[in-house]
Specification:
This protein has 13 helices and no strands. With 312 residues, the chain is an all-alpha fold. Helix 3 packs antiparallel against helix 4 and helix 7 packs antiparallel against helix 13.
Length: 312
């Protein structure tokens, strides 16, 4: 679909489409709440098993529904591309993220994860050299990662574990690598079908890793609280949130849809504070402001890859 075709489908000013409002709220609030849900789940359930269960079930449901609706089966070459993306964006990214969130509060994790568009731009400019360096981009990157440095600076009463935070940053790099590779690999033309297949494969690999690392010996115990958290991740985060995201991309400019990248951290910090009782310090708020501000500046760049902004 051409850019002009997308723009012409944007609702006219003065006429508010309730479906658009609900879809934006889904990407803002459903995805923003996934950080707290992950934190709740991994305090009781092993992390690789939790991530694998989430994506295997969500991927199986999404893939099966789309196949029943007539979407063509991926070819052998496309399954190869799906597997590469699944390893980068689900096994490496979420395996590391779920592990690290055993030690890092959900609000802090969300602030670190908000640097995904910045990491994507670093890959695009300095590694794959697909975009020229512009001073506005460099300023946004420095501002955002300056906020992360402030967040991890050991000062005051809040001691944030630096090691797991660096793992979260590294997981973002794996996600960005997968997002960049989507442009060069053979994948199904249907974005939802490709996503379902990627979640299915990634979730399956994570479950195998959970078995090999001993997470399933004995079988994990589910309390009602952790079970509801996993259910929310499957339905709210992976099915409803992603469906709303893809639906919006067909009707809105990508930079507008990517607004979730700076709303999600605010939602996660608020939920962590009011629901989970996580500590919020002035240093953390300043760091979050720097990161969110840098993302807003970065998303003004029209050539930002939309895939790099897909969330949790």
């Amino acid at each position: 679909m051409s850019t002009s075709a997308v723009i012409t489908r944007v609702p006219r000013l003065g006429r508010i489409d309730a479906r658009v409002v609900l879809a934006f709220m889904a990407t803002w609030f459903l995805w923003g709440a996934t950080f707290l849900a992950i934190r709740v789940a991994v305090t009781e359930i092993p992390p690789l098993f939790t991530a694998g269960l989430r994506f295997f079930i969500a991927g199986a449901l999404l893939y099966s529904i789309l196949r029943l609706r007539g979407q063509p089966r991926p070819t052998r070459a496309q399954w190869g591309g799906v597997t590469v993306i699944a390893i980068c964006m689900f096994v490496l990214t979420y395996g590391a993220l779920f592990w690290a969130m055993q030690f890092v509060p959900s609000g802090v994790t969300a602030v670190i994860e908000a640097t995904l568009p910045l990491t994507a731009m670093v890959f695009e400019v300095f590694i794959f050299r697909r975009q020229p360096l512009r001073w506005e981009m460099l300023a946004a990157v420095l501002l955002g990662f300056g906020g992360i440095a402030l967040l991890l600076w050991r000062a005051g009463g809040q001691m944030i574990p630096v090691g797991p935070c660096l793992v979260i940053l590294a997981s973002g790099c794996a996600w960005t690598l997968g997002a960049v590779l989507t442009r060069s690999l053979s994948l199904p033309k249907s974005v939802p079908l490709a996503a379902g297949a990627e979640m299915l494969v990634g979730g399956g690999i994570l479950l195998v890793l959970a078995l090999l690392t001993g997470e399933l010996h004995p079988l994990p115990h589910f309390s009602l609280r952790s079970g509801l958290a996993v259910l929310y991740l499957i339905v709210g985060g992976s099915l409803l949130g992603f469906t709303a995201y893809v639906w919006l991309l067909a009707r809105m400019p990508a930079t507008r849809v990517a607004s979730h990248a700076y709303v999600n951290p605010l939602v996660a910090v608020a939920l962590g504070y009011f629901v989970a009782g996580e500590e919020v310090t002035p240093r953390m708020l300043l760091a979050a402001a720097l990161v969110v501000g840098s993302v807003i500046l970065m998303l003004r760049e029209p050539r930002l890859a939309p895939a790099a902004c897909e969330s949790k």
